[in-house]
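User: Show me a protein chain along with its predicted structure.
Assistant: Here is one chain, sequence first, then structure tokens.
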Amino acid sequence: MDFITYLQERLLRELPEVVKAYPGDLDAEDLSGMETAVRQMVHELGNAVLQAWLEAQDEPYPADTQPCACGEVANYVRKRRGMTLTLHGRVYYRRAYYVCPHCGGGHYPLDARLGITPGQMSAAVVKLAALVGVQDAFGTSSDLLAQTTLLDLSPNSIRKACQQVGEAVMATEAAQLAHSQDLEAQQAHKRATDKPKRLYGSVDGFLAPFADGWHEMKAGVWWTLDAHARCACAGITWTPPMRKPSRTWCGRPGLRCTPTRRKN
């Protein structure tokens, strides 16, 4: 069971008892007021859960050293406070900080592992802000976010999110365009791609004598090849009076077929 499922089940199990134990008045004026209060509570509760969950990701007693990007070893300094802007507002948390004596650079292993840029919007916030920002003016989008998600973003932050997503889309399109012009890469991809299974067929007509005279017959055969050039084929013959063709199946293991392939 993952942490969120465990937490949800624990809260739902204890919620009825918490409501019963409340010493105050539970009467509400209207449903709208109840919804607004619950939404605000869930928003703040989510913020607290994220903070506790983030801090639980870090070791209680951090390692003395961590690898540095320069190839040397960074030393543990202390735990420092950080902030990230999430869908539940600004979340503050503490995590281990390391400094490399060789290059002088400092880094937070937890931030690097979770993809956190300290002081900036999370990837989920950037995606949501850009989605809203492209629909209307940045100022109007800021008000819409605040009313629907309780997320307080300035118009400038929404503009920044739109620009960030737009740059990522442009980079992806540029990479796809470059790949489409790379003939060698396309040929390599074509060679590496599994070819579709080919179905071979042959149909012919002929005259055959019957008790009431000669009748035209038609015969067809369809087959496929396996990796060892062995085929399994179904021969089909029929005559005009028949409504359904008569089928004769043959699948002889080890039979090797050398069909004529049509050149593309």
